[in-house]
Amino acid sequence: MRKILTMLLCSVCLLTAKAQTIPNMYRNVDQAKMNHWVDSVFDKMSYDERIGQLFMVISEPKSDNRTMQRLMRYVNEIKVGGILFHKGNPVTQAEVTNRLQKASRVPMFVSLDGEWGLSMRLSGTTRFPKNMMLGAIEDDKLITEYGKEVARQCKEMGIQINFAPDIDVNSNTDNPVIGLRSFGENPRAVADKGIAYARGLEAAGIISVAKHFPGHGDTSEDSHNTLPAVHHDRARLDSVELYPFKRYIYDGYAGVMTGHLYVPTLDKTRNLPSSFSRPIVTGLLQEELGFRGLCFTDALAMKGATTKKSDNPSVKALLAGNDILLAPAAPINDFTAVKEAIDEGILSIEDIEAKCIKILQYKYITGLNKYRPIETKELSKRLNSPHAAWLAAKLNAEAITLLKNESDMVPLRQLDKKKIAALSIGSPAGNEFQEMLGRYDSIACFSISRSSTAAQIQHVYRQLEKYDVIICGIHTVRIPESLQLRQLATKKELVYAFFTLPYFCKEYKSSIMKAKAVVMGYEGTPLAQEYAAQVIFGGIPAKGKLPVTIPGVFHAGAGIFTEKTRLGYHEPEEVGANPIRLDVIGSIAEEGLEENAYPGCQVLVAKDGMIIYDKAFGYFDYDQSRKVQENSVYDLASASKAAGTLLAVMKAYDEKKFTLNNKIADFLPELKGSNKKDLNIKELLYHQSGVVSTINFYLNAIDKDSYKGSLYSSVKNATHPVRFDAKTYVRNDFNYLPDLVSTEKKPGFTTEVARNFYLHDSFKDSIMQEIKDSRLGTRGKYVYSCVNFIMLKMMVENQMKQPMDQLLHNDFYSRLGAWHTTYNPLKRIDSLQIVPTENDQFVRRQLLRGYVHDEAAAFQGGVSGNAGLFSNANDLAKVLQLFLNQGTYGNEQYLSTETCRLFTQSKSPTSRRGLGFDKPAPGTHKGSPCSSLTPPSVYGHTGFTGTCFWVDPDNQLLYIFLCNRVNPSRANNKLSQLDIRKRIQDAIYKAIDRKSQKD
Fold first, then answer.
1. Buried-exposed string 693-709: b where 16+ CB fall within 10 A, e elsewhere
2. Relative to the CA of 39, which of 209, 361, 398, 727 has its CA 20 to 30 Å away?
3. Rg of the chain's alpha carbons, rounded to an integer?
4. Cα gap 433→411, rounded to integer Å
5. Ranges of each domain in the chain
6. Rounded CA gap, 198 and 190, in Å?
């Protein structure tokens, strides 16, 4: 008997505890201090002030006289307790808030209707995803972090309440008002996500307000325009609509908003909004479910809150049990009506004062007892913090959902074997989706809009016939599936990406059934488009799960996981880098521009397979004719040795075409019998062969009878008017031998050196002869030599039986999607995309644009072992990531792990050089080509035109700097004098050094 009584007593206690859930924010505050402040304020309040605390008016955040007069009237006449701002900008809202708070004797609640953060109402603030996209995220901890960040921004804006989360369960595909505002259709998942968001908000001191009680998810009407009805029995309501609210209340969160809904199961009074129903607000919410926090009405100006003419909505809402009257249509009239209702005994003054005290308690809890005006200086900068940018990006990345993936189509592979086109329906070509796709491969871009004519549409589909893979982005719900799309899905490998409400997929059901892959992006924001593109190419893994069922197409919970296979693009915080310290790069790059060290540059940083910094600075030239873009192409100069020739050498080594101890003469028979007959491959790669640094092949093409005296002079004079470098002036009145040089391409003259400059095909024989006849220095001593790599290129071509540029294109660059990386770029790339180098008034007598700067390479037709490669930072990063991945990229094997390790890890015993790569100089900063902060494992190369790249396997780090410091003259050495490249590298290491970040 005693045991039964004990069990009954425990059950009663448990029920009582559930019936009286005290919100965490209330429970965790110092009760004595709170009560002292509340009592001191309440005792001094007038009758009107106590009533006014229950009113929260709505307004645009404008500071014009008319708006301010109206708001001041609310403050002065009805003593409003709070304000909800509508759409505006942060600074103006902050200024209006400061003026109102100063005028109000009791600090006012400032609220936000920010289901997806401040950007829902305030322009120029971080745009976070809407709830349905968040519903696709598996990691609820991220949702909590999101809530904390929204709370931080609220505090910056002097906001204490956020009318979020929306925990309506969207079980109706035709719901016109909830839709993307819901976390999904699964009540448990909605509860989990909503509570995670509320947890973040309230942990940072912002009151969360769950809405729209008792549940607006299964309606086909909008309560802004009418009174929607919810016709479900109690069992269904308990298991679906009410479930998230129960969880929210039992977990102790502070605010609930009552919706304007007709729910006859809960209150049979015909057409009575639930917000005006005492059985629902008091009986169900407060008594049965035990909610003891603040109860807000939904906006009372909505059509769903319409009452009989004889009834006042504010009075009805208070009678129902609400604490705060949100956005009444006529605040002053409603204030008067409430006072009259008290006088008439309809409303109890004790009840009104109890609500007033509760409101004051939460004002204390949210810090209004220590209110400080909002600091408007640099407000936008504080709101749009690097952490906010990372979090918005991270949420998008985690949400992208792969719904279909036949034959493991995604991530795309074998790029060299597929011609890819991107079609955007409802968005112009070149949008963020297509732009990100273009970072991975050469993509032909097309679009169809609502205004496209039938002829234009037909033309687009005819063009698409040329391609193997079609990536189709759906950006609008206003263009239905077409017959052409259904046919396209049958004939081509079609990949869909939807940037719409998921339910819209059902309109494309026929072609979806035939498509190879379907990606759900949920929203048309830039971030959603960019990360969907990254999923398609493997820059990030697909992790999302569909939060709702798409009838007849996909079920809730669908989602195929993939792996990351290529470089991705993210904010620095994703890899633990300090974004503020990384921004130092910009100031150093700008210093170089100001000091005329170069007219423009690109800087790229990647860590852990993520590009975290990729920016362009300045212009193509000092005339500022064209801005440098991230896709602008630079002459890599000697960086070509490692990004081009060495790749080909490693490929040949992988195929056992040579060993490092083989003699170069074994592969170049012309060298047998010369002083180079015993040089081995290892010596050439280490630059310790004794071979001369360079050979001026162009001298053999000059008619020596066309001038008298020397070509060069250490001083400028009438004979030598052209500056060549820092110490040399040259003449340019000489002629070229007509049997070796032509101004036009013709039989026998096919080697293009520059515009209107062609060499006779026999000139290549003189190049080999020059190499053979050149002097040989001390073997084993480090002397950097371009000629070493010219010979290596010749060896590779002989062994691999094909030109090196063709080998590199077919076996590496086209497969990597590095389509900007090429020799002789004018054959593949628009000249307007290529950054000019020197205005060469000596050898080629023209501005060089798309022609290699290095003379030795130029006189070999632009393809040489020492120089000739062009690229941009983005494409070069793919090559470097291949090294870092030890031979793999895009889930494809290019080189063996053993070969990559050998070439990237080996180091000369007598110098800093690696096998083809340059490396840090041990123990010295001055003589080192890179930052003193780099570990010994780093390898890379620099280039004469002002380029460099460095690969750090210890930190999984890539650094690329590209510029044209030789424009207009190579005599400009300010890049080295200012130490720009090393200082940028210093900044990178300081940004990733967690110890220094704490300083």
1. ebbebbebbbeeeeeee
2. 209
3. 36
4. 16
5. 21-49+61-383, 400-566
6. 12
Q: What average pLDDT does the segment 903-921 reach?
A: 96
Is residue 885 over pLDDT 70?
Answer: yes
Residues 6 or more apart whose Cβ sits within 8 Å of residue 802: none
Question: What mean pLDDT do residues 17-29 have?
Answer: 83
- Using the structure block, give the residue that is written with the tokens 């003193």: 932
Q: In the 8-state DSSP scheme, what is residue 179?
A: G
Pairing type for strands 741-742 and 757-759 reads antiparallel
* Res 567 pLDDT > 90: yes
Q: How many CB atoms lie within 10 A of CB 513?
A: 13
CB distance 607 to 972 below 8 Å:
no
Distance CA 988, CA 993 (A): 9
In the chain, the amino acid numbered 918 is D
Q: How far apart are CA 569 and CA 565, in angstroms?
A: 13
DSSP 3-state of 257 = strand
pLDDT at residue number 997: 52
Q: Distance from first CA to last CA of the chain, Å, rounded?
A: 67
Closest CA to 688 of 778, 791, 796, 774: 778
What SS3 class is residue 326?
A: strand
What are the start-end ranges of the E strands in 876-965?
888-889, 892-893, 939-943, 947-952, 957-963
Q: What is the pLDDT of residues 808-846, one digit of tens each?
A: 999 999 999 999 999 999 999 999 999 999 999 999 999
Region of 367 please: left (phi>0), alpha (psi -120 to 50) or beta.
left
Cα 256–262–264 angle (5° rounding)? Answer: 110
CATH fold group of domain 400-566: Rossmann fold (3.40.50)
Nearest to 277, CA basis, from 288, 267, 285: 267
Cα atoms found within 13 Å of the Cα of residue 426, Cβ hemisphere only: 15
Cα–Cα distance between 106 and 109 in angstroms, integer? 10
Residue ranges of E strands in 93-233? 109-112, 161-162, 207-213
Q: Where are the alpha helices (DSSP H) in 740-896?
A: 763-773, 786-800, 804-808, 814-816, 855-858, 873-884
In the predicted model, what is the mean pLDDT of residues 559-581? Answer: 98
Query: Are 970 and 724 a contacting pair, CB within 8 Å?
Result: yes
For residue 104, pLDDT over 50 is answered with yes
Q: What is the DSSP letter of 860?
A: T
- Counting residues of the chain whose pLDDT is more than 70, the rounded percentage is 97
Q: How far apart are CA 344 and CA 356, in angstroms?
A: 20
Model confidence over 545-554: pLDDT tens digits?
999 999 999 9
Long-range contacts of 36-40 (CB under 8 A, 24+ apart): 37/360, 37/364, 37/369, 38/357, 38/360, 38/361, 38/364
User: Domain 21-49+61-383: what homologous superfamily?
Assistant: Glycoside hydrolase, family 3, N-terminal domain (3.20.20.300)
Count of all residues that appear for the chain in the document: 999
Could you say which DSSP state residue 87 is in? S
Count other Cβ atoms within 10 Å, centred on residue 100: 20
Q: What is the C-alpha separation between 586 and 17, in angstroms, rounded?
A: 58
Name the residue among 23, 368, 355, 382 with its Cα closest to residue 208. Answer: 23
Predicted TM-score (pTM) of this structure = 0.95
Tell me how far apart the alpha carbons of residues 743 and 749 are, in angstroms, rounded to a whole number: 9
> What is the mean pLDDT of the segment spanning 458-485?
97
Give the C-alpha separation, 91 to 99, whole Å: 12
- What's the burial of 8, exposed, middle or buried (CB within 10 Å: 0-12/13-18/19+)? exposed
Q: What are phi and psi of 611, to 5 degrees?
A: -80, 115
